[in-house]
Design brief:
Helices cover about 65% and strands about 10% of the residues. It is built from three helices and two strands, in the order ααββα. α1 packs across α2 and α1 crosses α3. The radius of gyration is 16 Å and the shape is globular.
Length: about 110
């Protein structure tokens, strides 16, 4: 594999890690706003939930709902993402911005 190919793989991996991190931040913000958890606890809970989802995907513990979009439903309902009430979306976005500043992709 050439240098260019290695850089492309590294870039793809970094993009994936950033996408995962943003998902964790989003969910942590929801835990803060909806469940009233402290920020650090919400971040840790969101990280753990992300790891459990990855494990469920690896073990094929889900049902594919839409092949084109990749939409899935986990067999374990506790792994399903929660819905944010429309009146809480701005608050979740504000907390998400704060958490993005407070935590790092490597935390």
């Amino acid at each position: 594999m050439g240098i260019g190919s290695n850089l492309e793989v590294e870039k793809s991996e970094e993009d994936y890690r950033e996408k995962c991190f943003q998902g964790i931040i989003e969910e942590a913000a929801q835990f803060v706003v909806i469940d009233g958890l402290p920020r650090k606890e919400a971040f840790e809970k969101a990280k753990l939930l992300s790891e459990k989802r990855d494990e469920a995907i690896t073990n094929e513990q889900y049902t594919e709902l839409d092949e084109d979009s990749g939409l899935i439903k986990f067999h374990d309902k506790s792994l399903e993402p929660s819905r944010v009430p429309s009146d809480k979306k701005r608050q979740v976005d504000a907390v998400k911005n704060e958490l993005s500043q407070q935590f790092d992709i490597h935390d």
